[in-house]
Design brief:
It is built from one helix and two strands, in the order βαβ. It has 75 residues and is of the alpha+beta class. It has a two-stranded antiparallel sheet with strand order 1-2. The longest helix is centred in the middle third of the chain and has 14 residues.
Length: 75
């Protein structure tokens, strides 16, 4: 199912200056639902190229915010 995941820094007790925030992060693992058995995971990965999709696309992905980055998407 297509969708978006938004990570937002906020607090009821603090005020943030978005230009001073560093929201850099690394995704080590991201999943939904029950853990698949090794056999089932092998089958899913084997069939994925034929389904036009992908699994585990975020694993190992780094999102680095650099000072002055206008596209940091801090909300």
């Amino acid at each position: 199912v297509p969708g978006n995941l938004v990570i937002s820094a906020h607090s009821g007790a603090h005020s943030f200056d978005a230009s001073l925030m560093n929201m850099s992060h690394v995704v080590n693992h991201f999943s939904f639902g029950k853990r698949l058995s090794a056999r089932m995971l092998h089958e899913v990965k084997r069939l994925t190229p034929y389904l036009g999709g992908s699994t585990d696309r975020l694993t190992g992905t780094a999102y680095i915010t650099r000072q002055g980055d206008e596209n940091a998407n801090v909300t």
